[in-house]
């Protein structure tokens, strides 16, 4: 019912770009505003930005529910941990185990690489996602503010899960 496929083609990146636009517009506009959402979509979530990231060694996967794209995630190995950069699921597919399946995949992948933890960043005002990550075993390490250009910042928590 839930499957994951590596994103490797321009078509895959376009599908992710479309998913990102839907998820970000619905979920993040109330948190960070329309202008910052538009900026971040173009800078980090466009097909060309995704292609650049993949060329630099960041992995992207499409999440499918009943063979339909409903989300995506991206990650990379950073030192002694796996960094979950993005995990986004359409509203209609939330609560169906899609995010949990992605995290289970990441945990297995981290273990295969001999890594003992997964880290991520999440907006400090994204309380629903913070609670979801906490339920999946993540804890808050620290708050960080990252300048992303054009007068915008990402005001996030760094969360970590220790793999047992």
Summarize the structure.
The chain has 164 residues and is of the alpha+beta class. It is built from five helices and seven strands.
> What gap, in angstroms, lies between the N and C termini?
27 Å
- What is the C-alpha radius of gyration, as a whole number of Å? 15 Å
Strand content: 35-45%
CATH architecture: 3-Layer(aba) Sandwich
Overall shape: globular
Overall structural class, as computed from helix and strand content, comes to alpha+beta
Describe this structure in words.
By secondary structure, this protein is of the alpha+beta class. The protein has one domain (2-162): Aminopeptidase (3-Layer(aba) Sandwich), CATH 3.40.630.30. It contains five helices and seven strands, in the order βαααβββαβαββ. The chain has helices at 10-32, 34-44, 47-55, 98-112, 127-135, and strands at residues 2-6, 59-65, 68-78, 81-89, 117-123, 139-149, 152-162. A seven-stranded mixed beta sheet has the order 1-2-3-4-5-7-6, sandwiched between helices. A hairpin with a 2-residue loop joins strand 6 (139-149) and strand 7. The longest helix has 23 residues, at 10-32. It is globular and about 40 Å long. The two termini are 27 Å apart.
Outline the secondary-structure elements.
Elements: E1 2-6, H1 10-32, H2 34-44, H3 47-55, E2 59-65, E3 68-78, E4 81-89, H4 98-112, E5 117-123, H5 127-135, E6 139-149, E7 152-162
Parallel strand pairs: 4-5
Antiparallel strand pairs: 1-2, 2-3, 3-4, 5-7, 6-7
């Amino acid at each position: 019912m839930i499957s994951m496929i590596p994103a490797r083609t321009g078509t895959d990146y376009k599908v992710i770009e479309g998913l990102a636009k839907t998820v970000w517009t619905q979920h993040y506009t109330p948190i960070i505003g329309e202008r910052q959402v538009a900026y971040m979509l173009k800078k980090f979530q466009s097909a060309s930005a995704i292609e650049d990231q993949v060329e630099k060694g960041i992995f992207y996967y499409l999440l499918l529910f009943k063979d339909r794209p409903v989300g995506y995630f991206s990650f990379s190995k950073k030192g002694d941990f796996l960094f979950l950069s993005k995990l986004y699921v359409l509203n209609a597919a939330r609560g169906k185990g899609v995010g949990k399946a992605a995290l289970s995949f990441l945990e297995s992948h981290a273990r295969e690489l001999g890594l003992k933890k997964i880290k991520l960043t999440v907006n400090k005002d994204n309380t629903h996602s913070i609670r979801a990550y906490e339920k999946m075993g993540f804890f808050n390490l620290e708050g960080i503010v990252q300048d992303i250009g054009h007068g915008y910042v990402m005001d996030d928590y760094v969360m970590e899960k220790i793999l047992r």
